[in-house]
Fold this sequence. Notes:
The protein is mainly beta.
Amino acid sequence: MKLMKINRIWTGPITAGMIVGGCVSVTTPIDNGLNQSAEHSTDDAALLDSSEGRDWPGYGRTYGEQHFSPLADVSDRNISRLGLAWSIDLGPGNPATVPVAADGVLYFSSGLSVIQAVNASTGRQLWSYDPQVGEQAGTKLRPAWGSRGIAYWGGKVYLGTQDGRLIALDGRNGRLIWSAMTVERDDGRYITGAPRIFDGKVIIGHGGADSANVRGYVTAYDATTGRQLWRFFTVPGNPADGFEDKAQEMAAKTWTGQWWKYGGGGTAWNAFAYDAEARTILIGTGNGAPWNQKIRSPGGGDNLFLCSIVALDADTGAYKWHYQINPGETWDYNAAMDIILTDLVIDGRIRKVAMTAPKNGFFYVIDRANGRLISAEKFSRVTWATGINMDTGRPEEVPGARFPDGKGFELWPSYTGAHSWMPMAFNPRTGLAYIPEITTGAVYRDPPVDLDRWKRADRDAHDMGVSLNPRLSDPMQNTSSLLAWNPVTQKPAWQVKTIGGWNGGILATGGNLVFQGQLDGRFSAYAANSGKELWHFAAQAAIIAAPISYRAGGRQYVTILVGMGTSPGIDKATHGGVEIDYRSQAKRVLTFVIDGRARLPKPLTVDLSIEDPGTDYSAEPALAARGTALFASRCSSCHGFDAVSGGTAPDLLRSAVVQSQDTFEAIVRGGALVANGMPKFEELSPDDLGIVRHYLRSRAATAANSNRH
């Protein structure tokens, strides 16, 4: 069991762990002092957008995914008194995740989906549950990004694991209630997103389209029993096998070639929203697999349901309507970013809408009853399209945007997107959406393509069929902002620049506040109506996740998990000069309350010097060049481009592990650190390991020499 160091005014006991069911680590249940009954007190009513906000049971709090708390005990009038109530130090692995809170208990995942339950007022640990993802995920541990969120309903905590399980735990004691395998073993699918609860059901999608030949789908289960209720595929399969439903038959007409041999993509790994009145579940689908449409669908076509919002009947999973954001998607412009539901007054009448700010740089307002576009405007720098045609709902693409053979195209936004998975928020009182906007570009080109190689399951997991250069000299490159957007006028209300090319997810509250963190660890509260910074706290760690707010013991709390994790840590060049070291920068849960008086420990100080490659090292440029490709395809998604870590995983240029052949082999091939999230690569031969190791030592030697001069 992974225990936590809790930094707070009062410290309670932590019991010894016990093994449950052969593979589950869970603490003995502790009386939490809250007199919880066996019956849950958070039910469907707490998930309504109109709920009073005592609890935060879902990823976006409610069905409408607004990331808005109506609580106003903490407001723009007393925010200066907000202080740290308690903090918890976490172990290794991903901390970039959104917690939930119910009945005075805070639940969160960290690392490889290790769930912790703590008293929300004090931070005292109640129980923990380790699904042992590292031991079970196998190749699905690549990349080792962990869970971005969980859910609570009916007294149960729900989580998806990277190996593909959907698990329900008893919220009182952490004991396993049911577990369902949502994917096939070794099929390339994995889960990083949060489950969503709706009408007694729990829905989950998966990722994997960027690393395997994957066909996307979503699955709904009975939230009480775990019984599978329905499944909807987001792209069609092989027509020779027959279609699962009429929607698949319709979608197949928009594809060409033998797309099913490449998987197709369209994975729904993040965005879901539920319209309870219409009994409709909305899902946001991902990019094509591979990205380059000329490979998967060489004759063109819209390639439904890639990069779309798809509406399904909540009871049956039957198709209702769709709106495709990027027909024939070819840039990694997935539409799996937040879908927010609300009512807006447009042209004098109330419209029930769905809003989204996907990667492609346009903010969309869509009629959620029928999927018709109401409006769409650019909220970031866009070069691939001049606008969205309001008659057809289709983008008006710029000639050359699909990077014709031999010609590069400077695409803004890049594959990073103008808005990534970090949640935006909507405050129904100000009428504004708050977006963690990103400004990045990249040059796209067509590389030589071997179509037969692309059909193989063992293809290079990080080759998406395009040649990319993200190293642009433009001053806008790798910049970001907190953007307040008016969805009715489709214009910005205010904008605050943030550091580097990433920033944290958003929380809006009824106290006229917007909370967001930055890469340099500054956790800020802004006036929701003006953007004026009213308060900040030095978190000592990069902030990627979104905060939540809830009430416990009659007081309003704000909680956020801090520390670098997932995709923002891949490329140090996007960090605006902020140094983020995996070993020294804390991963923590921080909880704030009015008149909180707790303090953080002093930051750790570690030696950040480059590791000497050793006396047995001699440069062999040809060998290092071979190692470049191996490292890029196996290691860069966690350890960083060019072996320069951005904080998601240890910096291998500063690691003594690389100097020991035996230790390096034990970790990389033997899986000695899978419990910490380091996958094993048993397919690499001893020669392959030697080549990668030589590459890393050559990079360290070059970096050390550069530092000396």
